[in-house]
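Hey, I'm writing a tutorial for new members on how sequence and structure tokens pair up, and I'd like a real worked example in the thread rather than a made-up one. If someone can provide the structure for the chain below, I'll link this post from the tutorial.
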Amino acid sequence: MLADMNIKTFLQGTASNAPVPGGGSVAALSGGLAAALTAMVANLTIGKKNYESMEEEMKAIAESMTAKLNKLVADIDRDCDAFNEVMAAFKLPKATEEEVESRKAAIQLATKKAALVPLEVARDAFDLMDSIEAVVERGNKNAVTDGAVAAMMARTAVLSALYNVKINLGSIKDQSFVDEVGKEVAALEANAVSREKEILAKVVL
């Protein structure tokens, strides 16, 4: 399990000539880091003097970020698993016409899944933005830069996950699927960049 590796081992594995962990898993990790930092700022606000009125909001954010963090951590391995399914489909037998057609169908199905997993990561990472904005605006000011980093990591998670979506779309024959997912990709890209700018503009040092 990639998610159970220590940081050094994960980075060494990423640097190796093995195809996984790769950009998809790193995208999920980036989202996880954004969620973790957001939870940290919320937790550093809870119980602090002058932030009493933010207590309930910050508790809710901390709880929400913990759940989102756990999902994004699981996605580190889900992305790897999706890639492995594509590779397994390519290894299916193709000695007969029936096997050739079955293999083609399996490759298409696995490639769709390999596109949808990082798309889900991108959605989840983008969904962090409202909470990140909240901790930047109303959280402990001593940790505002951690909120800023969370915004940048969330943006990175969205954009990097979407690159993994797009490379898989190039191999998918179902044009309606490609068109539908492509529209969502374009919207998420634009919105993630815009939201990051809005949040960073609120960082007061």
